[in-house]
Amino acid sequence: MSEFDPTPPRRNFYGRRHGKTLRQSQKGYLSEDLGSLRPRGITHQDNPERVPVTTASIFGDDRPVWLEVGFGGGEHMVHMAARYPEVGVIGCEPFINGVAMLLGKIRAAGVENVSVHPGDARDLMDVLPEGSIAKAFLNYPDPWPKARHHRRRFVTPEHLIPLYRVMQPGAEFRVATDIPDYVRQTLEEVPKAGFTLVHEGLDAWDDWLSTRYEQKALREGRVPHYVTFRR
Ligand SMILES: C[S@@+](CC[C@H](N)C(=O)[O-])C[C@H]1O[C@@H](n2cnc3c(N)ncnc32)[C@H](O)[C@@H]1O
Fold first, then answer.
1. Which residue's alpha carbon is nearest to atom 24 within ligand 1?
2. pLDDT, tens digit, for every residue of 190-209?
3. CB of 121 closer than 6 angstroms to any ligand 1 atom
4. Predicted model pTM
5. How many Å apart are CA 143 and CA 140, to the nearest integer?
6. Which pLDDT value is given to residue 179?
7. What's the CA-to-centroid distance between 45 and ligand 1, angstroms?
């Protein structure tokens, strides 16, 4: 074995990476747009030595950069990018059908202040320098309802400690979920990782845009909760 072992850390990802067959238009977005929108140096293949990747290298300047973990169909991410053109928004999503949906929305909205990592947020957090991120969003994270699966949730030290590291002091971390037990675990685990609770309630943020999962939750009679922390 070489002195430096570039093998990626053994990391479990339990979600889906592929869904139903992509439409021809979506295949086009992936082949034509993703190449220029994805940040370089995030995957282990691209950057086996895990050299730090600054947000200035991603956006070309020192604008504030926000992170959305698990953007799903991308509606919230595109909404934020359009509403805050002075900011750069990086989204991470391993589910390729979601990535294709986001790319369609990016084209339709014409936003340019976005960067798309079609993979696990942990790979991005590994290489971002400390204090890079000015705001982070975790919207409707996978609920993992069975107790023995709670450790797969995003609100566990494996994700929260790196998130804390890459966020700037004072940066806001927002969590939206419709699962009461997810609220419980969020309120327990996020402060343990160093964040301070700012607000928890049923009132959404002023600039919130309801996501596909929230719409599904509402149709099925579940109640959205919005939790805000500060790094
Ligand atoms: C329940 S969906 C919610 C999607 C969207 N935020 C919404 O509200 O409609 C959760 C998403 O998080 C993604 N996800 C899970 N673990 C992730 C990780 N480690 N990094 C990035 N995305 C992740 C999943 O692939 C899934 O698409």
1. 70
2. 999 999 999 999 999 999 99
3. yes
4. 0.96
5. 8
6. 98
7. 23
